[in-house]
Amino acid sequence: MKKVPDIISTKDLSYIEDMFNWHFILCKKALAYSELVLDETISEMLEEVSKKHEKICQKLIKMLGAGE
């Protein structure tokens, strides 16, 4: 990943916020659906999807320096 500049434009920050929100919503929805389905294999797959989106959210937070 490239180094984030010291100053982030308002437009860039808005886009990062949008990306975070997309992944956060997907994380929460996948986790909720994993608890609703009866098939254990599908449930496990949805849990993995949730974890992947959670990791992306964490990377976005770290990129902004808020996770330090």
Q: Can you walk through the features of this model?
A:
It is elongated, with a radius of gyration of 15 Å. It has one domain (10-63). It has helices spanning 10-36, 40-63. 3% of the residues are buried. It is built from 2 helices and no strands. Helix 1 (10-36) packs antiparallel against helix 2.
List the keywords:
0% strand, elongated, 68 residues, mainly alpha, 2 helices
Distance between the termini: 17 Å
Query: How is the biggest beta sheet arranged?
Result: none
Would you count the extended β strands for me? 0
SSE order in H/E notation?
HH
Q: Percent of residues in helical segments?
A: over 70%
What global shape is seen? elongated
Which percent range describes the beta-strand content?
Answer: under 5%
Helix-and-strand structural type: mainly alpha
User: How many separate domains?
Assistant: 1
Number of helices: 2
Rg calc:
15 Å
Mean pLDDT: 89
User: Which residues sit in consecutive blocks of at least 5 with pLDDT less than 50?
Assistant: none
Write a short abstract of this structure.
With 68 residues, this protein is an all-alpha fold. It has one domain (10-63).
Layout of helices and strands:
Blueprint: H1 10-36, H2 40-63
